[in-house]
Amino acid sequence: VFTVVYKENSWEVNREFFKENVPVYSIFESGEYVWLGSDTKAYRIKLSKEFEPVEVNSYYFLEEFSEKVIVTGLGNKPYFLLSTGIYGFDTEMDELVSIDTLQDRKQQFYQYVFAGDGQTWIYSSSLMM
Question: Which of 13, 14, 38, 122 is 20 to 30 A from residue 65's alpha carbon, by CA?
């Protein structure tokens, strides 16, 4: 993964941001963190004030086969969309949890609507994205 800057009407590669040799299917920025979705895995990268990576954590989805992880956000929270389910991230436990687990913890449940054009809409009583 590279960062780019826009100079003189064109994009230029600024630096290599993430040096792992893995496919990256999605990126979500949340405060001082950037989340990357890969093959049956997500990466959480903590950024410095200069937007340099200072810490990288990886989180695995326990699936029987490899699948693309699409990370998206609601507010400032990451959500992970897989063909086998939707996951959130529990910051206190530092782990991925299925939406069913989140619902059991009495957190607000969101409705997910998948449109044919590849868009994902997330609905709650106070927010439509």
Answer: 122
pTM assigned to the model: 0.72
For residue 95, the tally of other CB atoms under 10 A from its CB is 11
The DSSP string of 41-66 is EEEEEEE-TTS-EEEEEEEE---SS-
Pairing of strands 85-90, 77-82: antiparallel
| CA atoms of 69 and 67, how far apart (whole Å) | 6
**Token pair recorded at residue 107:** 């957190």
Q: For residues 60 and 9, what is the distance between their CA atoms, to the nearest angstrom?
A: 40
Residue 118, pLDDT above cutoff 90: no
The amino acid sitting at 26 is S
β-strand 85-90 against 127-128: which pairing, if any? unpaired
The whole-number pLDDT of residue 92 equals 92
**Rounded to an integer, what is the distance from CA 98 to the centroid of its chain?**
14
* Model confidence at 110: pLDDT above 60: no
How far CA 50 is from CA of 7, 25, 46, 47, 128, in Å, comes to 19, 24, 11, 8, 32
